[in-house]
Amino acid sequence: MKAIGNWSKEILLILMALVFLSPIYIIFINSFKNRRELYENTLAFPEEFGLQYYTAAMERMDFFNAFANSIYVTVVSVIFIVILSSMTAWMLARSDNWVSTVIFMTLIATMLIPFQTIMMPLMQLVTGISRTTGIPLYNTLSGLIFMNIGFHAALSVFLYHGFIKSIPISLEEAATIDGASKFGVFWRVVFPILTPITATVMILNVILIWNDFLLPSLTLIDKELRTIPLSVFYFFGEFTIEWNLAMAGLTLTIIPVVIFYVLAQKYIIKGIGEGAVK
Asked: Cα separation of 260 and 206, whole Å?
């Protein structure tokens, strides 16, 4: 009976894996088909595996420019999120007073607010600031990076805060006795210990920012500023949808983040387990 139970669990897990992998299979297979093949049977293999639709999709998307924009926005955003969130979490964890508690709980509460409820007031505020002060927040990559930092800080502070609570304060006290400043204590003692949770914060934010469509669609207007998700969206027209090119574009979008996730997935599990639980 125990063997039957183990087999049934394995079969169930395999079926669940197939269900989750089926959208990727459909996207990948249909990226090689022409319109006739695609409409005849979306699940069948194509008559031939050619790269003509990938070439056409890359040209229509201005792929390399969009890829560079996505890389720039993602890397710069994640760097600032890691630096600012880790420092914020450290100060909140080591400040034993009601003010730090209120600030931390407020940050956590913002995680419960759907972006869709604030996106229109946010755009009105951003365009108003850009017009009155000249600060380039709207229709610029720097403005998108600034908003990414704000929207992704709460989750990062939460993860860092839980991890920092597990670090013995005696290490920091010893560094202070040796003459280290607050800045030195954090960067020379605390931050190196945060490596596992830093890896998790980086991976989660890379995936979220790379795949983000809604905020860039509201913020970026010029074609040369489009990120990869925005470029793929323009295969879906008002009256026609170029499914084969769209599937090729989606595959090109998915490949980098899938490779990144596969290489770094163990750090996600380890970091969340050590940070959020402790």
From this structure: 9
pTM of the model: 0.84
Q: Which domains does the chain have, with CATH numbers?
A: 2-40 (no CATH), 62-238 (1.10.3720.10)
pLDDT digits (tens, 9 = 90+) for 199-231: 889 888 998 999 898 899 888 888 889 999 888
With 60 as the cut, is the pLDDT of residue 240 above it?
yes
Q: Report whether pLDDT(15) > 70.
A: yes
| Residue of 35, 4, 65 lying closest to 228 (CA atoms) | 65
Structure-token pair, residue 110: 């913002």
Give dist(CA 254, CA 68) in Å, integer: 15
State percent of the chain over pLDDT 90. 18
User: What is the radius of gyration, based on Cα positions, of the chain?
Assistant: 23
3-state secondary structure the chain: CHHHHHHHHHHHHHHHHHHHHHHHHHHHHHCCCCHHHHHHCCCCCCCCCCCHHHHHHHHHHCHHHHHHHHHHHHHHHHHHHHHHHHHHHHHHHHCCCHHHHHHHHHHHHHCCCCHHHCHHHHHHHHHHHHHHHCCCCCCCHHHHHHHHHHHHHHHHHHHHHHHHCCCCHHHHHHHHHCCCCHHHHHHHHHHHHCHHHHHHHHHHHHHHHHHCCHHHHHHCCCHHHCCHHHHHHCCECCCCECHHHHHHHHHHHHHHHHHHHHHHHHHHHHHHHHHCCC
